[in-house]
Amino acid sequence: PAAPAEGDQTNPSGEDAPAQPDVPPEPAGPLTLSQTSFSIAAGETALLTTSNTITDIALECGFNDGNYFKDLFRKVYGRSPREYRKNPDAT
C-alpha cells in the first residue's frame, strides 16, 4: 500500500484520525496601552483590597512577569507596589 499523503488524516490502520480539539489561538501580541493601564489599575485595587502577594496580583492582572509589573507600577504611581500597599495616601 502507498504511504498516506502529507496532511492525510488517515492513520496506518486505515481508520480516520480522531478529531483534534479546538485550540484557542495564541494572543495577537503584547498588551495594548489601554489593556496595560487597566491591568495596572486592577493591580492597584488588588493591592489595597487583598492580601495576595504582589507576584500573584501581577499574574492575576495578566502580567507574565512580576518584575515587569513592579517596574511599570513604579513608573505609573511613583513607588513600588509594596510601598504603595503600606501607605497608599502618601504623595
Helical content band? 40-55%
Shape call: globular
Encode the helix/strand succession as letters.
HHHH
Uncertain regions: pLDDT < 50 for 5+ in a row? none
Structure description:
The protein is an all-alpha fold. The chain is 46% helix and 0% strand. It is built from four helices and no strands. It has helices at 33-49, 54-60, 66-77, 81-86. Helix 1 crosses helix 2 and helix 2 crosses helix 3. It is globular and about 50 Å long.
Write the layout of secondary structure elements.
Blueprint: H1 33-49, H2 54-60, H3 66-77, H4 81-86
Helix pairs in contact: 1-2, 2-3
Keywords, separated by commas or semicolons:
single chain; about 90 residues; 4 helices; about 45% helix
Quick summary:
The chain is mainly α.
